[in-house]
Amino acid sequence: MIAYINGDLTYITDEAVIVDIQGIGYEIICPNPYYFQQSLNKEVKIYTYHYVREDAQILYGFKNEEEKHLFTKLISVSGIGPKGALAILGSVDIPGFISAIEQEDDKFLTSFPGVGKKTARQMILDLKGKLTSMVTITNETDVSNDTDRVGAEDIKEAQEALKALGYTDREIKPILPELQKEQLGSTDEIIRKALSLLMKN
Question: May I ask which residue range the UniProt record assigns to the signal sequence (predicted)?
Fold first, then answer.
């Protein structure tokens, strides 16, 4: 098992990053490759999961151990493969996701692409009680997590609005980490901030 890759980040695509280690380029599929944009042409450490099947060997990469751990738990759920797990990780904060599992929040879970009610229930059945070690969920944090979840949904709505304005996923993905940090209060505020960031790029 390859636990992490440490090398020079040489290239970023919509789905993956390429890390050079002594002249060998490792392709690593990530939830949001553009998260590593600031490390382009620099040394970077990416936590990895080595996925092996009969017809392929694939490296999946993550920004930290928590994200990697959640990925491994997600792909253990019946009906969720690596692509589905990456789609979830690419647009959610981990405490908010865990809170949704613990509170059996079907509505939040079905907001992810490819996750219907049946899969959401399976996720709750398989994961409830198994993720809480990653974060401490108390009554106080439940309130903040509710806010985080609204923020995640607002960001998704903002993404759709930006696409309607003619922006592509390739243009939008690099600014998502910045938008998530801002913790803006509404979809309109997120769109305004996104447009200002897009104009700078």
Answer: none
Decide: helix, strand or coil at residue 7.
Answer: strand
* Fold of domain 4-63: OB fold (Dihydrolipoamide Acetyltransferase, E2P) (2.40.50)
pLDDT band at 144 (very low <50, low <70, confident <90, very high): very low
pLDDT at 16 over 90: yes
How far apart are the C-alpha atoms of 94 and 90, rounded to whole Å? 11
Q: Find the mean pLDDT for residues 5-20.
A: 95
The DSSP H or E segment spanning 188 is: helix 187-200
Q: How many CA atoms lie within 13 A of 144 on its CB side?
A: 10
CB 29 within 8 A of CB 39: no
Burial of 178 (C-beta count, 10 Å sphere; 0-12/13-18/19+):
exposed
Rounded alpha-carbon distances, angstroms, from residue 55 to 58, 60, 83: 10, 16, 16
pLDDT value of residue 141: 40
pTM, two decimal places: 0.67
Say if CB 25 and CB 43 are below 8 A apart.
no
Phi first, then psi: what are they for 134, rounded to 5°? -75, -30
Q: Which two tokens stand for residue 143?
A: 């309130």
